[in-house]
Design goal:
The protein is an all-alpha fold. It has four helices and no strands. Helix content is 86%, strand content 0%. Helix 1 (3-39) packs antiparallel against helix 2. It is rod-shaped, with a radius of gyration of 31 Å.
Length: 162
């Protein structure tokens, strides 16, 4: 690999890591929106699902960035020592970006885990509400059945004396 090929590959790595960082920022923002929904007094599953669908393309694209980055890096890694001194400032800058991306990825994982816990809590509350509704509905239904049965079993008579 000559210098210009190496430079081109390095530019691809820089562009890829920059785009990944932007996508991670977007994912973090969407995850914070989900947190707001989860912390709201009234949980909206529709709003939460809409954000999940919004996040899906970002997640797929980040996976593509990772695969592309690994592929290009594997191709240029054997030549890295030949151009290390010449590209040292750019290598350090790229390392800084990688560190930033890793930190954002960790923050995203933490936020997602917290949201997962909150979602489980919200769903537990919803299940309890449904269970209570079914129980009260069943009780009311049973009451009406008993009342209807009690009325049909009773005999009514009219007093003909006046």
């Amino acid at each position: 690999m000559d210098r210009s090929d190496f430079s081109t590959c390095f530019k691809v790595l820089e562009d890829t890591i920059q785009k990944k960082e932007q996508y991670l920022d977007e994912l973090l923002a969407l995850t914070k929106e989900q947190e707001t929904i989860l912390l709201a007094e009234k949980f909206s599953m529709d709003a939460f699902d809409a954000l999940m669908e919004k996040k899906d393309p970002y997640i797929k694209k980040i996976s593509e960035f990772d695969a592309g980055f690994e592929s290009v890096y594997a191709r240029m890694r054997p030549e890295m020592e030949n151009y290390k001194k010449e590209f040292e400032p750019r290598i350090r800058a790229l390392q800084g970006k990688i560190k930033s991306v890793l930190e954002k990825g960790a923050a995203l994982c933490t936020a997602e885990e917290q949201n997962r816990t909150r979602l489980e809590y919200c769903l537990k509350d919803k299940k309890q509400e449904i269970k209570n509704f079914k129980k009260s509905s069943s009780t009311v239904s049973s009451y009406y059945k008993n009342m209807a049965g009690a009325l049909s079993d009773q005999s009514f008579f009219m007093d003909k004396k006046k």
